[in-house]
Amino acid sequence: MEHIIIHMSKDKYGVRFTPEQLKQESVFLHKEVHRLLYSKENDDPKLPIYFDKLQRTLAGLNGLLGEPAELISLMSYIEAARME
Questions:
Q1: Nearest to 70 by CA among 22, 21, 5
Q2: 59-67: which pairs have CB atoms within 8 A and are 24 or more residues apart?
Q3: Which of 12, 14, 52, 68 is most deeply buried (CB count within 10 A of its CB)?
Q4: pLDDT tens across 19-57, in order?
């Protein structure tokens, strides 16, 4: 899975994010997606909680970063996986 890199320097509050901060967030999200896959393969009873947590994290980040298209697509993929 390729890391999503958001190309922006300010959030909606005017805070500047460095490219390294955005890269670190991308790596974190990548790890969370892998945790979902692992949990799904192992029928983890906490799987719905993990989906909810990741979607809330993505929703917050989406609003903070001004709804970049890449993040909206990622949220759609996560929701589709939840419905399977």
A1: 5
A2: 61/25, 63/12, 64/11, 64/12, 64/13, 65/6, 65/8, 65/11, 65/12, 66/8, 66/11, 66/12
A3: 68
A4: 888 889 889 988 998 999 899 899 999 999 999 999 999
Q: Which stretches within the chain are classed as H helix? A: 19-41, 47-64, 69-83
- Entry pTM: 0.74
Token pair 């509050």 in the structure block, residue:
13
For the four alpha carbons of 77, 1, 35 and 70, in that order, the dihedral sign comes to: negative
- The end-to-end CA distance of the chain, in Å, is 20
Residue for token pair 């190309």: 7
